[in-house]
Structures are given as C-alpha cells and as structure tokens.
Amino acid sequence: MKVNDVLTLAVSDLVLGGKGLARHEGRVVFVDGGLPGDRVRARLTRVRRSYAEARLEAIEEPSSERIPAPCPHVHECGGCRFQDLSYPSQLVYKERQVRDTLIHLAGIAEPLVHPIVQAPDAFGYRNKMEFSFHPGETGPVLGLHERGTFDRVFELEDCLLPSRLTIEIVHLTQRFAREHRWRAYHPRHHHGVVRFLTVRHLPITDQCGVTLVAASDEVPALAEWAREVAALAPEVRTVSLLINHSRANVALGEDERVLHGPGTLIERLLGLEFEVSASAFLQTNSRQAEALYRAAIAAAELGKHETALDLYCGTGTLTLLCAQQAGEAVGVESVPEAVEHARRNAERNGIANARFVAGESRRVLREWARGEREGAVRADVVVVDPPRAGLHPRVVARIAELEPRRVVYVSCHPGTLARDLKDFAALGYPLAEVTPFDLFPHTPHIECVARLDRVSA
Questions:
Q1: Is there a single domain that holds both residue 437 and residue 363?
Q2: Which residues of the chain fall short of a pLDDT of 50?
Q3: Given CA atoms 55, 60, 64, 69 in this order, what sign does their dihedral have?
Q4: Which of 25, 105, 215, 400 has the fewest C-beta atoms under 10 angstroms from its C-beta?
C-alpha cells in the first residue's frame, strides 16, 4: 500500500472524528466520507505502519443507512459531513463512540453511559456561523472552507445549519463585496483586507449581531454596508468591525469598532440572561445547551451551604447557574474580557453569591495552594468545562488536592475526556456516570456531562 493507491473497501464502522473504518490486508484504513455498510473506492492519502487514511472516490454499493443529503455543498464542505447518514443512525454511532472511547482510552471496563440526548432541531440549530473571505478570479469569494483545507473557500449558496436571516446576510455581503471591490485576505500569502464574516442569531431572544473581521479598516463603503445589513430585519441589533492584525487564521481581533447598535446581544438560558459580544463564547446550540447545563447542575447536586468552583467558566453561564443552587459559586477564566462579561451577567441577573477570578486555571490553583493568591476556595463541588484539549495533568492533581466530594466534567471531546478520567480515577475520583449530548447534528462532534465521585481512602 502506498499513497495514491485506489482500493475497494467495505466500511464497517465510524470512529472518533467521523471517519469510516475499513480494513485492507490486515491494516486499518480510515475513509473520509465512508459510512458503515458502504462498499467504496478510496484513494490513499497517508500510509503508516499500523493504519492508513483515504479519501472517498466513489460509492460502489451504498449503505442502507444512507439518505439523500439536502445541502448542495455536502460533498465539498468540511462541516456537516454526516447529512447523508440518517439522524437516528448518527445518534447510535455517537453514543457507541463515547462508550468505546471510555473502555479503550480510559480503561473503564463497564462505563455507565446513559442514552445520548438528541438535539431538538436537526437543522437550523446554530446560533453562530463564521464565513471566510478568499481572493477569487472575478472578486472576493465569501463562503466556507473546502473539506480538509485552510486556504480554499467555496462561494456559499446555502447552509442549513444557521437561520435563514444568516444566509440573507451572507448573500447581501457577497454582492456588496463584489460591487465595492473589497480585497479578500489570503491566509497563505497574508495580503488583502477582509477576512471573515461572523453572524450570531440567538434563537431564544431572536437577536442578531453581525461582525466583519478585517486586517485593517480600509474597507470601501464600510458604513454603507453596515446600514444595509441593519436594514435587512429588525432582529439585526448590532453590526461591528473587528480588526485582526495577526497572521493567525481565526475570526478574532484586537480592536472592535461598533458600526450600528449597542455592540452586544442578550441570550436567555434556563431563565437567566447573558450578555454576548462579538468575541464572547456562547454554546452555538442554545436550545440543546439548556439541556446540557440542566444535566450538569443536576449532576452537581449542590446544597444551599456548599461552594462550587467552576473552572474555564467563560462568561459565567455555569457559575451563575451553580450560584442559584449553592451558597457560593466561584468562576475562574483566563480571558479578561470574558471575566468582565461574567461579572456584568451576575449583576444583570441579581446574583450576589458569585465571584469571578481572572487567570489561567492551572496557575490560579497553584497560587491558591501555595498561599500566593487571596481568595482561595475550599470547593465542595468542582465543575470543569475545558476546551477540546482537555485538562492539564497538574490541573487534575490540583483539583484532587482540594478534595471536593464531586467533580462534574463538561466535555466537548470524548478522547480528551477519557484521558482525563483515567488521571482522575488514579487520584480517587472514578467515573460514576456520563451522558452524551448531540449539540451538533450531522457533524462528528459530541458533548458529554460526566460525574465523578470521590472515593474515601
């Protein structure tokens, strides 16, 4: 087997990350685009000693679980690649992946995995989408990245994940950018101006915010574009420009200029209101996020005289929900802007028993342990909601040193969750139960809420 060989393969399963699993001459082959039950022709793109990776060339015999994909971009887009797998089947494979990952990576022989919680909406569920600009032959292209690339973008015709208003805003911006000859930024050569268009349309409050991310403010007719976007619908409350001078290919920036409206939106989750700015983190599936947070609070089982410590708290969503149940809730977050939003969210909701600490979790826990920082917490329950990379081993150790009676782990990646659960178990915090949540239908992503109870020595 070598790169560029074309093989005929029978796909038997899906693996973490969303690729189809097949075998050829005793070697595992991961087929991008293959679904369980497919017989396919695939071209090898990488060959290693124990496995190979391949790109789907053609489907010779389709799986019985395949359905027609409704999106016109399903074969070129790197996003919702499972559209042609029936939604009930998606849930079966995602739940199985969580269980298999805990068995094989965490070393848990019989993990208690509850049935996956399906999303209330299979389409139209995303409250935020980022679209990329790219130089084209006849003008700037605005759309999404081609599958497996960072420097190729296709012009968006439609996307079924965000609201219809979001797509209207994209089409308006595509036309406006061509007419006014906006110069698209090239992620490889680092020239040009306009980089991303971010649209956040919050379903519960029906408020919409639009952000143009650019390398500078040299965008022709910028004010006119903002007026046209704001005039599309009354739901568009704010339009802003975010300047990103760096070479990092991310829809973030250092300097924000509000072009229309207040610059922030409000979303409502489980009865609380949360202020959202252009760069603030908010779960991108609001309705399913409510189910996720409800499960995390239920798993914590906080008492009125207990203290909750929420690490990686973002703008304070879980911290404030914990504060409603506990005597005190403390949130730790490394992004100063997010901490300010969290404090304003506490004030907005009249919650006085929550406080927030700015700092990286590993450093804050170390400084508390050494007495180098005031306000140390003796937590009864620790809640963690880290990024995909999971927890640093020292964070796991510091949490165990606090001796909380329970840890609630909200995870967006079963693989790093399994790795961290193994570390927790070695320190006296074995997994009690885990519930998977499907926040992102038609994608490989899986969220989980895991409960860990302390085992006394």
A1: yes
A2: none
A3: positive
A4: 25
